[in-house]
Amino acid sequence: MQRLKEDGAWEPPAVERMNTPELEEEKRRGPRNRGLEAVKVRGVGAWGGRRVAGRREGKRGAVSPPPQGQERVRKSSVDLRREIIDVGSIQRLIELRKQRRQRREERAATPEPSPPPEPLEIVCLGGPRTFLRAAVQGKMRVIEKFLADGGSPDTCDEFHRTALHRSSLEGHTDILQKLLDSGATVDFRDRLDCTAMHWACRGGHLDAVKLLQDHGADLSLKDKLLSTPLHVATRTGHPDIVEHLIHCGVDINSPDREGDTALHDATRLSRYKIIKMLLLHGADMMAKNQAGKTPTDLVQQWQGDGAREAGLSRELGYRAAWTCHAS
């Protein structure tokens, strides 16, 4: 109580006698006035830290704080980085950032190197199968290697489809040119009697059609369904090829095995643009197929889209009336 009056703040006896000769003596002999000190410590109040300190002091003695001047200093990652890397000054740090930015810009401006070319020694290890696959994928080097090694340009698969058929479907005109220059048969037929011209019309590649035509392809050959290239182009919906074939003078009214002409197919499939083209070039609207149906009958039978089918009916009706009047 005397210390409370003089200093204005009371401290527990354990704190007063910390690191004193009396404390060392007490450790050897045992605590003096243990009951009184415990009562004083419990009567301090609600400060849990002082009660804990009193208990620890009564049981095994107080723990001495670290000596002054030796406090542990926590270092941040920035301090550690500065100890490892000597940046020198702010100016040096700015220069490093500029150099890093400049290197990024140079890497972005530098184009990526092209992949190394495929070695010619391994491109044709698969033989004819690899050759035919290359015709679909457009790999000219594989084609050239196969032909240079003595392979036949008419090599075919189990369906008798050659590289010329496959490249015609995909429109690879450079491979078509190479195969034709190497002696490929332009009208080679597969098991369905389709030629490369049929496949070019099916793929919708007008350049391939013209290239085959320049090398003597027959535009009037029929497959096993008696379909001409005009039938195929009409069914697959390629008006540019239909127009080209018409201008080349193909038979516009040639029937297939079911008796359908190109106009029958165009009407059944609602190829409106092709229908107008065929009518303008003299397609026979009164031609009947094996079922006895004319293109006009097919319009009424297959109508589903009201507006378009109505337009087709009017177009065919006007054309029929004009034909009857002209005759």
TrEMBL record:
<feature type="repeat" description="ANK">
    <location>
        <begin position="192"/>
        <end position="224"/>
    </location>
</feature>
<dbReference type="InterPro" id="IPR002110">
    <property type="entry name" value="Ankyrin_rpt"/>
</dbReference>
<keyword id="KW-0539">Nucleus</keyword>
<dbReference type="GO" id="GO:0005737">
    <property type="term" value="C:cytoplasm"/>
</dbReference>
<keyword id="KW-0040">ANK repeat</keyword>
<feature type="region of interest" description="Disordered">
    <location>
        <begin position="1"/>
        <end position="76"/>
    </location>
</feature>
<keyword id="KW-0677">Repeat</keyword>
<feature type="repeat" description="ANK">
    <location>
        <begin position="258"/>
        <end position="290"/>
    </location>
</feature>
<protein>
    <submittedName>
        <fullName>Ankyrin repeat domain 2</fullName>
    </submittedName>
</protein>
<dbReference type="Pfam" id="PF12796">
    <property type="entry name" value="Ank_2"/>
</dbReference>
<feature type="repeat" description="ANK">
    <location>
        <begin position="159"/>
        <end position="191"/>
    </location>
</feature>
<dbReference type="GO" id="GO:0005634">
    <property type="term" value="C:nucleus"/>
</dbReference>
<feature type="repeat" description="ANK">
    <location>
        <begin position="225"/>
        <end position="257"/>
    </location>
</feature>
<dbReference type="InterPro" id="IPR036770">
    <property type="entry name" value="Ankyrin_rpt-contain_sf"/>
</dbReference>
<dbReference type="GO" id="GO:0006357">
    <property type="term" value="P:regulation of transcription by RNA polymerase II"/>
</dbReference>
<dbReference type="GO" id="GO:0061629">
    <property type="term" value="F:RNA polymerase II-specific DNA-binding transcription factor binding"/>
</dbReference>
